[in-house]
Automatic annotation (TrEMBL):
Belongs to the ABC transporter superfamily. Keywords: ATP-binding, Cell membrane, Membrane, Nucleotide-binding, Translocase, Transport. One of its GO terms (molecular function) is ATP hydrolysis activity. CDD domains: ABC_cobalt_CbiO_domain1. It comes from Streptomyces fulvorobeus. This is ABC transporter ATP-binding protein. GO terms for cellular component: ATP-binding cassette (ABC) transporter complex.
Amino acid sequence: MSRPTPAFTPSLEVSGLAYAYPDGHQALFGVDLTVERGERVALLGPNGAGKTTLVLHLNGILDAGAGTVRVAGLPVAKRNLAEIRRRVGIVFQDPDDQLFMPTVREDVAFGPAASGLRGPDLEERVREALERVGMEEYANRPPHHLSFGQRRRVAVATVLAMEPEILVLDEPSSNLDPASRRELADILRSLDVTVLMVTHDLPYALELCPRAVILSEGVIAADDRTQDLLGDEELMRAHRLELPFGFDPRSVTMGA
């Protein structure tokens, strides 16, 4: 497939990444993946494929057993971890794993404040992050008073406040009602950051990500236009991926 013409250093470069857990289980067998700046890419695959293991290498939670990972040209290594963790923002599947302060504003301010931002600059950073997810009017509300969909949007804001290079989303559509699902999709389409979306929700991947990668048994099994991958019935079957009954990916008009 054609790729965007690189105008900058790619947001993400993974080369020959292999990893075995201490118990000997080999989770990754040499993953190669490049994501250009501004791309939205869906990371698909069955349970146990290695998706979580790959994501945990992106901000240095796991150290590569072999191979390299670079974020905006910066190697993911101990000497760079503070900067890497600012550049790679992970939004967890459960927003309650991410929100722990008394108010929405304090949750969004926590990361930038910990990085040394203070005063009017901090307030402006928080305001902008909440505005981008449509939650500015809830700044003084306790997160536990919000709906699940609103808490997920606040979780996205906590990451955006760090001005990341890459936004990694773990099952972003899970447990959302249809309206919240649409609202989050609109927000994600409007963001000017690179997005890597880990999901089993294949229609959502098709709606939001022009490109998809299938990770299966620790290797990249396919990398192409999302519409083409989801329309390949043999490929889908081989990697235990299933579309909802009656859903035809060819009938969906792809957005940018």
